[in-house]
Amino acid sequence: MTLFVSCSFIVQISFAQYNWVNYDTSNSGMAINSVIALTNDKTGNVWASLSIGTSSPYGVIKFDGAIWTSYDSSNSGLPSNLIYGLNVDTLNNLWFGTDAGLVKFDGSNWTVYDVSNSGIINNHVWYVAIDDLNRVWVDASPWGLSIFNGSSWVSHTQSDWPIPNNSIEAMAFDDSNKVWFGCFGGGIAVLNLTDSSWVYYNTGNSNLPNNYISSIAKDNFGNMWAGFVLSSRVAKFNGSNWTVYSPFQNSGTWVAYNSMVFDNDNNLWIGTRSEGLYKYDGINWAQYGTPLPNSGISALNQSVNVDVNNKLWYGEVYTGLWTADLTIGIDENDFSYDGISIYPNPVSDNLTVEIYAALQGKKDLSIYNTLGQEVLKKSFAERKCLVDVASLRSGIYFVSLKTEKNIVTAKIIKQ
Known about the structure:
The protein is mostly beta strands. 0% of the residues lie in helices and 46% in strands. The chain is built from no helices and 37 strands. It has strands at residues 4-7, 21-23, 35-40, 46-52, 56-63, 68-71, 83-88, 94-98, 101-105, 110-113, 127-130, 136-139, 145-148, 153-156, 168-173, 178-183, 187-192, 198-201, 213-218, 224-228, 234-237, 242-245, 255-262, 268-272, 277-280, 285-288, 304-306, 311-316, 320-325, 335-337, 340-343, 350-355, 363-368, 374-380, 384-388, 395-402, 407-414. Strands 1-22-21-20-19 form a five-stranded mixed beta sheet, with no helix packed on it. It has a four-stranded antiparallel beta sheet with strand order 2-29-28-27, with no helix packed on it. It has a four-stranded antiparallel beta sheet with strand order 3-4-5-6, with no helix packed on it.
């Protein structure tokens, strides 16, 4: 039996502050500030495709941390300057989805796959996914799907596959040898590659908010997440149950295409189409505003990614590229906010919660692990409280303190 759960956790504050760096035409090799897709290769280089909408494309740019290199149809093997999607395989080959076919770049050589020289179903490539066997899954929505194993091609459409429709907007692979397809208007279809069976999730058999899927991602614990077009909700599937969250401020906000990623600490990062960048740490949702544009329009496709060094990269259509070292967000600093201090951090035995603000009544404190499980709970009325955390295992935890005024959350490290 599948259970359906709806939740809404709107964060009052953003407790993890990062040192954001912005790259635009004023301080980089970018020709324009409009990013439509991005990815990172195995060495940490960021690759971003640039275009004003889809009518004025500028190819792709690579940044290695010091040097910016631009590639377009005039100086490379790219058949077009319009690049919808980018991905990297296990051998660090770059794959580009363009409106003139699929392109592979091995660092030296460019190879173009189109309908004239390969088995690709159509030259319009929206998204490229790579599975654990290094097979390239080519989303040529709305014409269908092609799979390339390095030597041969297989293509599928709704006519030969029991997929809801040919408009596949998102793909992801889980830990059970299954591929998840997000279909525009068709909900979610899950193909078991072991026995070729299919499972479907839609508004008819689940509590998904709609059938228009914009993004699918797997977290570090194997849960599958989905974002939706024209819906301000996000859904998580843990293998048995769907949980639906309503994290955004406005009902018209939705997740940009293929714009949900998880960092090394299992934080979910989401690029939205009207409220910029969001993060979910397993307890609270936080919108990242200043210096980021809090009403920002994320890149059309693949707007957010985490590189091999746990640095977050975010692409926006007006302000260019943003990046932050996420390890700084897990710093060894005491927490202080709005008259509340939580220290020391890191902590070994006793955690001190001290309240300087004029807050009356009972305070409820809970500590959660990175799975979102409550591992310690305590209520107190005093202005200073010692919390014995000696029995907790070493690792990262989240302290949630509820007062009469608000709820604050801090990330701590237990030594």
